[in-house]
Amino acid sequence: MRLQMIFAVLAVLAPLAPPANAVEVAPDPGAHREFNAKLLVCDSCHEAGRSKANIPIISGQQENYLAKQLRDFRSGDRKLEIMKWMADTLTPEEMGLAAARFAKRTWPARVTNAASTPPPNGVAVCQACHAQNFLGAVQAEGMTTPRLAGQSYDYLVDAMRRFADGERTNNTDMVQIMKAISPADRDAMARYLSSL
Question: Could you tell me the pTM of the whole model?
Answer without folding.
Answer: 0.79
